[in-house]
Amino acid sequence: IMNNTSIHSYSFEFYLKIYPISFLNRLDLEKGDKVLLPSIILQKLSDSDIKGPIIFELTNTTSNKVSHCGVMDFTADEGCAYLPRWMIENLCINEGEILRFNHASLEKGNYVKFQPQTNDFFEISNPKAVLEAKLRYFTCLTRSDIIAIEYNNKIYWINIIEVKPGIAISIIDTDIDVDFGTPVINKKINTQNLIKKDDLKDVGIESDKTQLHYDDSSSIENEGTEKPLWGKGHFNKKLQ
Predict the structure, then answer these.
(1) C-alpha to C-alpha distance for 84 and 90, rounded to whole angstroms
(2) Which of 6, 111, 121, 166 would be 116's cystine partner, CB 3.0–4.6 Å?
């Protein structure tokens, strides 16, 4: 559903039905924030004067949940968009429901604070390097989102506590100062019992700060033993 009157240098709005990327067997896209859109969107973008990275603000107009995404390609069925499952869960939207898309011009980020949901993320031999490699699959970060990071056959849930500037940032080819808050709980949890967003609190007393550089054009090193774990079974409870 297109809103042609909204297409100008600062606005580009449309509505699409949402389905998980797993429907197309594109489990590789579960690792990041890129979505598949129909070809008509590319045509409309070409006719507009929008410049820069293609980033969209996603809004569930029922719950007012908001996130942001990049675009992998424009091969989706007409009237449909395919999203990573973790993103669908963040937006509290069901398969086949309508989602609003608005083109977004995000500033390059300079700060982000992450909070692992469990302490076992810090048991990884080099969590900073793992996080940097995984974020190369991402275009942007939105405050209050919970992203999923897969490493060594395991999925780690990471809360985005804060970003600067604003509430959402582009992480394409930019240097970002990173803080890590204390994990929400100090034990392993089942992904079927995700912590509600209302329960997310910055409980960190001390944080580990570093600086990462994200380059969207970078290639990911071969991580050998990793296998995709994505699928509906890992995301079967809505984030409230």
Answers:
(1) 10
(2) 121
Encoded tokens for 74:
């424009």
Residue 131: how many other CB atoms lie within 10 Å? 21
Q: Under 8 Å CB-to-CB from 59, ≥6 apart: which residues?
A: 65, 66, 99, 100, 102
Say what the pTM is: 0.76
Q: CA gyration radius for the chain?
A: 17
Q: Are strands 140-142 and 65-76 parallel, antiparallel or unpaired?
A: unpaired
pLDDT in tens, 82-134: 999 999 999 999 999 999 999 999 999 999 999 999 999 999 988 988 998 99
* 99 close to 41: Cβ distance less than 8 angstroms: no
Q: State how far the Cα of 178 lies from the Cα of 98, in Å rounded to an integer.
A: 34
Q: Which of 156, 198, 172 is nearest to 69 (CA)?
A: 172
DSSP 3-state of 192 = helix
Q: Please give the Cα distance from 125 to 223 (Å, whole number).
A: 14
- Check residue 52 and give its pLDDT: 79
d(CA 216, CA 173): 6
Yes or no: say if 156 and 116 are a contact pair by the CB < 8 Å rule: yes
From 205, 167, 152, 210, select the one nearest 183 (Cα to Cα). Answer: 205
Whether residue 201 has pLDDT greater than 80: no
